[in-house]
Amino acid sequence: MDNPSNMLNSRKVSLIAVTVAASLGSNYILIGVANVKIMDLLVFISGFIFGSLIGASVGVLIWAIYGVLNPYGFVPQIWFATMLSESVYGVVGGILGKSLSIASPSNNKILLSILFGAVGFLLTFIYDLATNIAFALTFNVPLIAALITGVPFALIHQASNAVLFGICSIPLLTVLERSYRGWNHGISKE
Amino acid sequence: MASLRNKWFLVFACILCWAIAASLLSCYYYYQYMDLVSRLEKSKAIINLGIDYGNGTRIWFNGTRGLTLYDAMLEAGWRVDAESYGAMGLYVKAINGVEQSVEQSMYWTWWLWTSLGWAHGGSACDKYVLSNGEVILWYYSYVDPKTFEMKPPT
């Protein structure tokens, strides 16, 4: 007979693999749309449901593949920076997931959406800042020039993530938490 | 989550997002503006600009820089009183305190030195884009009120 905890782990791993695959697929589909990606949202949600460590791992794993097989080219320093920066979404998702319950009736859904939107915006700001600094250092571009010329792209990224986090987080988390808790048979998050 | 119950936290988060976006946009446009100014500064022409008050006094401001003739006049430190006619440009009514006189039919006109002599400037001073090495003279002179004829500077 199968060990229930092994079953749980295999389901968890499969859900993580599906999340990574969905992120990668969406990244390649949206390759022509500059800085609009649902990857960040999926990494955040992985962290929210499975905890910071797994969320961060999902972020690193996605970039480990997407950064190497990238039509825009492969630069090791940028690749490393994006892997680390992407993991921030998972880490913060995990921290929020510990203290916030989507299912709780006491939480106003509109306020939660606003909170997720703001979190998406701020995390993306940190991500863009870190990757732009890495870009400047890698290519010996003056830091201020790199940061300022990257502003239009950063703002599109931040605005799109604010909208995606604000609108999509709650429905996605509701569905995934329900599935995950259903598998858990009432077992709480690890 | 305690912070969600505290609506001020959400307000703070939203204001922080707005402040970041506004600051980024301000920095971006400031940088673009400064870059444009610096490029324009490099593309300014150097001309010889003169002024003739019609009383025998002619003063030259050699090596004056400007994008347009109006820029060069301001660069030379002239006090220019002009009226805007929209797309047609500026109409100069007085320079350095010397005003046009409708009664005496004395007006300010500008002239460009060519190989054939002085040629009347064909446009408003703020619409005329300067080229390096041009010689331009502002001339206070009599204009025939009926035919609008005027004599070129001597």
Backbone shape of chain A: globular
Q: Name the poorly predicted regions of chain A.
A: 185-190
Low-pLDDT sequence parts of chain B: none
Total count of domains of chain A: 1
Would you report the number of β strands of chain A? 0
Read across the widest sheet of chain B, the strand sequence of neighbours is 2-1-8-6-7
Question: What is the H-and-E element order of chain A?
Answer: HHHHHHH
Largest sheet of chain A: none
Number of helices of chain A: 7
Structural class of chain B: alpha+beta
Looking at how many chains there are and whether they match, the oligomeric state comes to heterodimer
The helix count of chain B comes to 3
Q: What is the molecular shape of chain B? A: elongated
Distance between the termini of chain B: 87 Å
What is the topology?
The complex is a heterodimer of chains A (about 190) and B (about 150).
Chain A: H1 4-29, H2 39-50, H3 52-66, H4 76-99, H5 109-139, H6 143-149, H7 151-184
Helix pairs in contact in A: 1-2, 1-3, 2-3, 2-4, 2-7, 3-4, 4-5, 5-6, 5-7
Chain B: H1 2-5, H2 7-42, E1 45-52, E2 58-66, H3 69-75, E3 80-84, E4 90-95, E5 98-99, E6 106-114, E7 117-120, E8 135-142
Parallel strand pairs in B: 1-8
Antiparallel strand pairs in B: 1-2, 3-4, 4-5, 6-7, 6-8
